[in-house]
Request: fold
Amino acid sequence: MIRQLGIFLVISDQASFTFICATFYNPFSGASSQMIACPTTPCDGSTCCNNETLVINVSTNQTQCGQQLPPDPVYALPACPTVSCQQCGSLPAFFKPNPLAPYPVGQMTYTYSINVTNCCMVADWDCSRNAGDNMGFQVNDGSGAVAQAQQCPNVDSTKKPEMFPFLCGNDKVWRFHGHTFTNFACYVLGTGAC
Reply:
């Protein structure tokens, strides 16, 4: 970019004026204009540009132009947990045929997740077979039933107050509502009964 600089020279002999115009060229690179932000401190100690109000920063006890935000704080990220979540054995291994024969066996489905608060493995479940079937579900601890329910068309871990998800404890043992168990069963009490 070349910037043109003009110089006008006036010569006078008192009777006439002679104008001499000379133009010089000055090569340079860069922007043809420059924007300078108004200073945050007053120019002469008491005047701010752009109609900014003169204020006193109570943190520094210095005068400044207008209200200014402090820089954004930078916070450290929380440390990642070093505890690994426990893993229990295969939950379907505890599924046994109906202890109350002659009922037909139902179908169990599982949805696993991790409780991020306590790093506990959670297994939500569903006991069902065909639409309209009246289903039964029972959890046994070796000496009898810990929990038992029947509902249409399914029984699942959300059916309160007697049904809950299976939880894997810190000792890597599955529990049902706080109880250890030996097996559970899903069975059809009646077809088309719903």
